[in-house]
What does this fold into?
Amino acid sequence: MPQEAFTSDSPQATERAARAVGAQLRPGDVVLIAGDVGTGKTTWVRAACESLGITDPVTSPSFTIGQLYRGPVPVSHVDLFRLETLTGEDPGLLSDYLTPDRVAFIEWPGAGVAEVEPQRVVLKLRLSHMGGDRRRIEADGEARLVHAMRASFEP
It folds into this structure.
């Protein structure tokens, strides 16, 4: 899988990249998104959901673990920020979110990565602060998605 790093100069550039990637996602795909608080993980998911036809407001599910969105392509948005591990949690905690008929985005994936079938992970992202609105976006994933992201940053 190709690895590449990009610099986003604004939330709008981050959203443009997310929409480009989102347009390439298919049911069953899983995107893992890591990064510190405030780096734009939910901004990324919101824009990708727009390109998948989701019209409902997309918000961070930090306190509910996950949200399900209906659209032309159903979407799961999971946030595992509060969990260091899934030990002691309901064994089926993620099963409703990681179905083959929907695209899934997992923020703070560390605790749940072992629950995801590796062949379903099509993109791993790491967002980092670079000062102000600038972000470094590291992408490791399928060529079609990394290429779509690269194209979104080209003039």
Observations:
- The chain has a mean pLDDT of 87.
- Strands lie at 3-8, 30-35, 66-69, 75-79, 103-107, 121-129, 135-141.
- The chain is about 20% helix and 25% strand.
- The chain has one domain: 3-153.
